[in-house]
# Entry
Amino acid sequence: AQKITQTQPGMFVQEKEAVTLDCTYDTSDQSYGLFWYKQPSSGEMIFLIYQGSYDEQNATEGRYSLNFQKARKSANLVISASQLGDSAMYFCAMREGWSVGGFKTIFGAGTRLFVKA
Amino acid sequence: DTAVSQTPKYLVTQMGNDKSIKCEQNLGHDTMYWYKQDSKKFLKIMFSYNNKELIINETVPNRFSPKSPDKAHLNLHINSLELGDSAVYFCASSQGVALAKNIQYFGAGTRLSVL
# Structure
């Protein structure tokens, strides 16, 4: 069964607008972490943002924020004021607590974001 | 200074050969990882070491053997390369294995092409 689901294979957004990339996850554990990574066309993987399952506030890092809805098991990434350099592949990932998933981080299939000038 | 560096960046080789990919991190992290990214961009964990001890060993062929001589290094040796091994291999490191310390920092990737 898919543990991380990213339903949008590709997304377009106009420069300077905000965009939401969807991510839903599946776990029976109470303790887990959620991550977003960016992979530009150059190929490197860049960490963007982290949300712990017990964190009460939604995580924010500059123009990135994570819309964490625990009951719905969703962890959407919001990018505000999109820039051309945001065009990339975005991966949602989850690390379950030791009791369930061990130490593995599971990645979603990714969403390719295109920012239009 | 590059935090997680892996070499080589590109590796083109013939089927049946043996090759190694090296990885070094200068972040002082305790945990290191190898991932494989296939042609559809799907990223999957292969191995992980914490303080030089193997903690994740996914179902990969035993032609793949990781080696961690110290906390800062995790190398990947591949024997008898096959066409299906063609992929991008990423090394990563994290502070530790606790959730909040599990933010992983990746190397630039090694694109392996087996002909």
About this structure: The CA atoms of residues 87 and 114 of chain A lie 5 Å apart. The mean pLDDT of chain A is 92.
